[in-house]
Amino acid sequence: MNFSRLLKTTSALTSRWLCSGRFQSTSAAAQKLVDVSVDSKTGVSIVSLNRKPVNSLSLELFKEFCGVMDDLESEKVRGMILKSSCDNVFSSGLDITELYPHPDEDRFHAFWLWFQETWIKLYGSSFPTVAFINGHAPAGGCVLAISCEYRIMLPYYKIGLNEAPVGIVAPDWVVNSLKSVLASRKAEQLLTSGRLLDTQEAFDIGLIDKIVNNEEEALARSEEFFSTFDNVPKLARALTKQQVRKNEISKLIKNRSNDAKLFLNHILRPETQKIIGSYFKSLKDRKK
Ligand SMILES: CCCCC/C=C\C/C=C\CC/C=C/CC(=O)SCCNC(=O)CCNC(=O)[C@H](O)C(C)(C)COP(=O)(O)OP(=O)(O)OC[C@H]1O[C@@H](n2cnc3c(N)ncnc32)[C@H](O)[C@@H]1OP(=O)(O)O
C-alpha cells in the first residue's frame, strides 16, 4: 500500500471514534480554537492555536486542528507556520482536565485517538512545516513542535518533555519523533530527566533551529527555510519527506487502538491519578 493511502487508512474501530460526532460541544464548535491566515507576501499559511489562556490541548482543539490540516493538504499550500495566539505560551501540553480526575473512558479514548491523528497529520504532512515557538512549550506542546520540520523560538521560554517526573512514560511515537530531531543519547537524556530547557539550551543541543527576537524575524527565517524548496518539485519533496517518516507513522497506524488502551489503563491507575492530581494542584497553588 502506498503511503498516502496508508495515511488515509485506519482501523474500523478507530474510524468509528474519529468519525462520530460525539464530544462536539456547541460552545466549542462556536469558538474558534485554531485560526488560519495567509501571509500575503509569501503565500504561506499561518496556523495559530487559540485556546486561551495557555493552549492546553483538548479533544475539541485536536479535532479542529485536524480539520485545518485537511484543508491545507487539499489547498496544496506552500508551507505552514504553527504558532500560538496566547501570551507567553506556545502550548501547555495536553489539557490535564482530560486526564484528571478519573476521565470518562469513552471520552479519553476519543481524546487519545485525536491526539494520535494530530501527530499523524502534522508529522506526515506533505507541505513544509515550521513551528514558531512563541512561548513555553512543555510536554504535548513540545510534541507539536518536534512534529514540524523546522523550529524557531523566542528567547527566555522553556521547552521539553517533562512527563517522566510526573510518573508518565512517553509513547514510542513521541520518543521516535524526538529521535528524529536529536541524536538518541540527547533524546534519552532529555526524556529521562524530564528537564525543560530554556531557548538557548534548546538551541545548543539542536532541539530548535533558530532563535529570533520577534515575529517579524520569525517570518523572515521561516521564509528562508521554505525557499530552500523553491526549486524542488512539490511531489518529490513530499514523497521524500514521507519516505523518511513513514516507518514511525505506519507503526502507529497499525497500533492505534492498542496505544489508546494502554494509555487509558495507565491514566486510570489510582497511583497515576494521584500523581497527576498533586501535579495539577501544585500548578494551581503556584499562584496563591
Ligand atoms: C501531568 C500528567 C501527564 C499525563 C500524560 C500522559 C501521557 C503522555 C505521554 C507522552 C505524550 C506527550 C504528552 C504529554 C503530556 C502532557 O502534555 S500533560 C501536560 C503537561 N503540561 C505541563 O506540565 C505544563 C503545565 N503548565 C505550566 O507549566 C504553566 O501553566 C505554563 C505553561 C508555563 C504557563 O504559565 P503561566 O504562568 O503563564 O500560566 P498559569 O500556570 O497561571 O496557567 C493558567 C491556567 O491554566 C492552567 N493550566 C496550565 N497548564 C495546563 C494544562 N496543561 N492543562 C490544564 N490546565 C492548565 C493553570 O492551572 C491555570 O489555571 P487557573 O489557576 O485556574 O487559572
UniProtKB/TrEMBL annotation:
TM stretches of this protein: none
CDD domains: crotonase-like
Principal location: mitochondrion
InterPro entries assigned to the protein according to its UniProt record, in alphabetical order: ClpP/crotonase-like_dom_sf (IPR029045), Enoyl-CoA_hydra/iso (IPR001753)
Keyword flag Mitochondrion: yes
Reactions catalysed: (3Z)-decenoyl-CoA = (2E)-decenoyl-CoA; (3Z)-dodecenoyl-CoA = (2E)-dodecenoyl-CoA; (2E)-tetradecenoyl-CoA = (3Z)-tetradecenoyl-CoA; (3Z)-octenoyl-CoA = (2E)-octenoyl-CoA
GO biological process, alphabetically ordered: fatty acid beta-oxidation
Pathway(s) where this gene product acts: Lipid metabolism; fatty acid beta-oxidation
PANTHER family from the UniProt entry: ENOYL-COA DELTA ISOMERASE 1, MITOCHONDRIAL, ENOYL-COA HYDRATASE-RELATED
Protein name (Swiss-Prot/TrEMBL): Enoyl-CoA delta isomerase 1, mitochondrial
Organism listed in the record: Polypedilum vanderplanki
